Structures are given as structure tokens and as C-alpha cells.
Amino acid sequence: MINLEELDICRRRGHSRVLGEGWSQCESCGWWRRELRTIEEREDEPQESEMDTSRPEIPGTVAPNPAELLICRRRGHGHTIRSRWSRCESCGYWLREHRSIEEREGEPPEEEMSLETQSARILDNVNKRMIELLRERAPT
What we know:
This protein is an alpha+beta fold. It has helices at 4-13, 66-75, 115-137, and strands at residues 24-25, 32-42, 86-87, 94-104.
């Protein structure tokens, strides 16, 4: 259940849960949030003003290779991708990341929840069942 007073505070100060893959619920207000991450790819070199200057260009970098790009998409690129363009040493493509936050009031489907939330729910159900069993076996 959403606590609107707490939601106003969370929107000013931030929610209690760390974002990651999947939906997680704020412990303070009850709002559900998830972080969406998309990677943009390009073959041609971007404008210098859009490049990640914290990662210097490596001499002898490979030309863009579509076959290697497919491997990188499956296994991950050879470096951390940020919001500015940088070149992957493995496939030769230029990459940048876009992040956004999605929010919802209602509970998402369980398979879309974060692994942490799914694990917590499983443990919660196990604990409840154990308590029930102990009560059933306890002498009256």
C-alpha cells in the first residue's frame, strides 16, 4: 500500500532501495521502481564533444566487426559503458548508455521483481510456514 506522505518525502530525498535489475519496492513509501538501461551502438566515430575523455583511445583499435558485436551483445562489452561515447576494444563499435527510472504503484509480476525481492519473498514464505508447523506441533 502506498503511503502518500512518505512518497512526497521519498521524491524529495530519494527512495530506500538501491536500484538494479528488476522491480524493487521502497520500504518507506511502498512505491515500486526499476532502472532501465539501454545501450546505443554506432560504427562511425561520434563528435569529439560527445566522447568519454576519461577513457583514452587505444592505438590500433579494431574496425567495427558485426560478428564480434553479436558476441559482445551476448557476453558483454570489454569495458564499462557510460553516458558518453567510448569504443569497445573487442567489437570496435562506439557505445553509450542511457538510463531511466520507471515507477509504478501496483505490484509488478513476480518474475519482473529484482532477485533480492524474489528471494526475500521466498524466505518470508518459508518462515511463515515454519511458524505454522511449530504452532501445529506445540503442546496445547
